[in-house]
Amino acid sequence: MRDELRRLGRAKAPASLAEGLFEKAAEIETDAGLTFVVWNRRGVSAVRWATSRPEFERWFAASYRRPLRWVAERPDLSRFDLSRLTPFQRLVLQKTREIPRGEVRTYAWVAREIGHPRAIRAVGSALAINPVPLFIPCHRVVRSDGVIGNYGMGGPVEKRRLLTLEGVAV
After folding, report:
1. Which residues pair with 33 in a beta bridge?
2. pLDDT at 17 over 50
3. What CATH number did the domain enclosing 100 receive?
4. DSSP for 81-121, written as a single string
5. How many CB atoms lie within 10 A of CB 6?
6. CB under 8 Å to 84, separation ≥6 — which residues?
7. What residue numbers bound the domain in which 93 lies?
8. N or C end of the chain, less CB within 10 A?
9. Boundary of a domain, candidates 43, 70, 97
10. Does some domain include residue 101?
11. What average pLDDT does range 28-33 have in this prediction?
């Protein structure tokens, strides 16, 4: 049995195993600046601004506890991995994705549109954990009282900057 265990310890894992364990990461240039993007077979799973790769890697490790593999290729920015979210959260993000560039909607509008008109706070909570905030544009959702609200990738200041880049008079 000991010999069998030794042989097992020398066995090589198939190359395809790494695809399932590691998520790909790359730096891409967006309208908003240099952006770090992570993706897997299902789609883009995380996005963040950072001043350096090490800073991004620290954030990713603390947030997701998964290994990264840096690649030169560019991800498909039309597919997203939202598998870690609840059905309600995915519904909120799908509706938010429909908001056109240069326009805003309210949290109440999103809640009504998805058939949960009283779930305004739950909509805000779902947007707060959006793993791909630049590509599913939660910055386009504002409060009904005209206050801009918060934004997970830099607070109200970044939210205002992104809306201004899109031509929204904030």
Report:
1. 30
2. no
3. 1.10.10.10
4. --TTS-HHHHHHHHHHHTSPTT--EEHHHHHHHTT-TT-HH
5. 9
6. 131
7. 87-165
8. N
9. 70
10. yes
11. 84
Tell me the one-letter amino acid at 159: K
- What residues are paired with 99 via a beta bridge? none
Cα distance between the two ends of the chain: 71
Q: Is residue 80 part of a domain?
A: no
CA distance 30 to 28: 6
Residue 138 annotated as catalytic: yes
Q: Among the options 93, 138, 148, 163, which is catalytic?
A: 138
Q: Are strands 141-142 and 43-48 parallel, antiparallel or unpaired?
A: unpaired
Q: State the burial class of residue 39 (Cβ atoms within 10 Å of its Cβ: 0-12, 13-18, 19+).
A: buried
